[in-house]
Structure formats: structure tokens, C-alpha cells
Design goal:
The chain is an alpha/beta fold. The chain has helices at about 15-25, 35-45, 60-65, 85-90, 95-105, 125-140, 165-170, 190-200, 225-235, 245-260, 270-275, 290, 300-315, and strands spanning about 5-10, 30-35, 50-55, 70-75, 110-115, 150, 155, 175-180, 185, 190, 210-215, 240-245, 280. The protein has two domains: about 5-150, Rossmann fold (3-Layer(aba) Sandwich), CATH 3.40.50; about 155-190 and about 215-285 and about 300-318, UDP-galactose 4-epimerase, domain 1, CATH 3.90.25.
Length: about 325
């Protein structure tokens, strides 16, 4: 078993669940920050884990999380919120709190799982908050007080993900109703490939101080017609993409936001998310990990789509 204690925030989320299971399988010692011990026990009933009970603004819990850890992996994030302040409270302030606790604990490495959205901070409150979170981390550690690396994955999909379920479900239909534009291009990554990349970074010296984008290896990314073609080949039918006009979705998002504000709820669709969906370029720009030989993706969309859809069906989600 590894002597390097790995402390994780966001371990009960979609990527976090895959990561925690893999780390334990590979013999690592893992400590999780969790808001609900009951949820953690349900998700990881058979795993030997340490637990720090609290959230990202609980400084005592963060001290417990980071004490004696060799690596901190910060996954926790807010992807939907009522307003920018709510995004910032988790994504910016939370990141600062975790990083400060890790720095005080003299943690050997801080791995921050950000988002490709941080590249386009002007698009949404979420994107701006992730960009600011990266800035907070780099400013806090600008004198070399703690080694860090930032990962910016594109859209992550795979078994267990509810966020991409509507899009993948659409791609199983003969007519796929899609929120985007035909000419837009984007990168993707299968969850197990992202987990492989995170694990490959543990203890890696060459990536310190770098912000790294990564994808599934598809040069130039995908477009929606191409994705529909792949999905059709996997499913044995022709899939025709039908694009929702941006004006229609923006108007719908505005109405949803207005209604959510009245009842003080988080809107399931916001105008900022529409801005992200219709942005023309979400293609990852570099292959730093592949070039260095640190990591290489294994799963292209044709394989990942089949695995994910098969899982959805086996669980009754489709």
C-alpha cells in the first residue's frame, strides 16, 4: 500500500467516485472531505477510507483533510447556481480555502481539476468562477510554497453521469435534438481516461506549475454531425442532428431563470450555460501529457458512447 495519503474533495461526485474506487484498487490511502457521512458510506461501503466531515468553508474539516497528506486532489465544484456569488462561494472561495489548508499542512502536491470553461471566462458565471479559482491558486502559491498542477478537462462523460445523459440520450434517437451549432467543434474525454490522467500526475515532477488541457486524442475535436454519425454507427441506425436555434434556447433559459428567482431555486438551465453550449470552439489546445509520455487516452467516442449507453440501459436510465 502506498504511504502517500491522497486527500480528495468532491469524491462523491461523478468523476470523484470513479477516482476513489481506482485509487483504493491500486493500493493508495485515501481521505475524503464529505458533507454527508451517510452518502459516503452508501457509495463506498466496501472501501477502507478515511473521512473528514465538512464542506469547503469548514476550516477545521479542511485541516483534518489535509493533515499528513502527500497529495491533495481538489475536484469539488459547483456547476449550477442561482447567481455568480453562489458560484464564487464554492468555486473560488472553496478552492482558496482548500489550497490554503494544503499549503499550511505542507502538502507535497496540489492537483486542481478545473474546467476547459475557464479558458472563456466571459461566457458564464461558472466559467468566470473557475478562471478566478485558478488565479487564486496560482497567487497563493506564487512563491513556490506548494507544487501544483491544473487540469482543464473538456466535457466528461461515462457511466454514472447525469449531466451528459440528455445529450447522449438524444444521440440514441433517429432525430437528435441538440443545443448547439453544426459548425462548432469540441473535445471530449471518457471518465476513466480522465481518472488515468489524474493518477498519472500523482508525484509527477515535470508538470508542476502547469495548466494542462486534455482530451480523448481526437485531433481537432468533434462536431455534432460527426458525433451523430458515430452514434448512428454504434446504434445501427442513422441519426439526424436537429439544432435548436440559440435564440429559442436563450429565451427559454431567461424564462427559467426568472421563474427560479421567484421561488428562490437554482435554475436547471441558465443563459450562461447557453452561451457555453453555443460557443464555437471547445477544442483542447495542447497535448502536454501525451508528448511527455506521462499519459495517453485510450477511449474514443465510439467506444465510450457504447459503454456509457449500455450502462444507462442496464440501470434503467434509458
Amino acid at each position: 500500500m502506498s504511504d502517500n495519503m491522497i486527500a480528495i474533495t468532491g469524491g462523491t461526485g461523478f468523476v470523484g467516485r470513479h477516482l476513489v474506487n481506482r485509487l483504493v484498487d491500486e493500493g493508495h490511502r485515501v481521505r475524503l472531505l464529505v458533507r454527508s457521512k451517510t452518502t459516503a458510506r452508501e457509495l463506498f461501503a466496501d472501501l477502507d477510507l478515511e473521512i473528514a466531515h465538512g464542506d469547503l468553508d469548514n476550516l477545521q474539516a479542511l485541516r483534518e483533510l489535509t493533515a499528513g497528506a502527500g497529495t491533495v486532489i481538489h475536484l469539488a465544484s459547483k456547476i449550477a447556481a442561482k447567481d455568480r456569488a453562489e458560484f464564487d462561494a464554492v468555486n473560488v472561495d472553496g478552492t482558496r480555502n482548500v489550497a490554503a489548508a494544503a499549503q499550511a499542512a505542507k502538502v507535497g502536491q496540489f492537483i486542481f481539476i478545473s474546467s476547459l470553461a475557464a479558458r472563456e471566462a466571459h461566457l458564464s458565471g461558472y466559467a468566470a468562477s473557475k478562471n478566478q479559482a485558478e488565479h487564486e491558486l496560482t497567487q497563493l502559491t506564487k512563491y513556490g510554497t506548494m507544487p501544483w498542477v491544473i487540469l482543464r478537462p473538456p466535457a466528461v462523460y461515462g457511466p454514472g453521469d447525469k449531466a451528459t445523459l440528455p445529450l447522449l440520450q438524444a444521440l440514441t434517437q433517429r432525430y437528435a435534438l441538440l443545443p448547439g451549432r453544426a459548425e462548432a467543434r469540441f473535445s471530449l474525454i471518457y471518465v476513466e481516461d480522465l481518472v488515468d490522467a489524474i493518477i498519472a500526475l500523482i508525484g509527477d515532477q515535470d508538470t508542476q506549475g502547469q495548466t494542462i488541457e486534455l482530451d480523448d486524442g481526437k485531433e481537432g475535436g468533434y462536431d455534432w454531425p460527426g458525433l451523430a454519425k458515430i452514434a448512428g454507427e454504434v446504434g445501427g441506425q442513422r441519426v439526424r442532428p436537429v439544432f435548436v436555434p440559440r435564440t429559442v434556447l436563450s429565451a427559454a433559459a431567461g424564462a427559467i431563470e426568472f421563474g427560479a428567482k421567484i421561488v428562490d431555486k437554482t435554475p436547471p438551465l441558465a443563459r450562461g450555460k447557453v452561451q457555453e453550449l453555443y460557443h464555437p470552439n471547445w477544442v483542447c489546445e495542447n497535448k502536454k501529457l501525451q508528448t511527455a509520455g506521462t499519459w495517453a487516452p485510450k477511449t474514443r467516442f465510439s467506444e465510450g458512447f457504447k459503454k456509457t449507453v449500455d450502462w444507462y440501459r442496464s440501470e434503467g436510465w434509458l
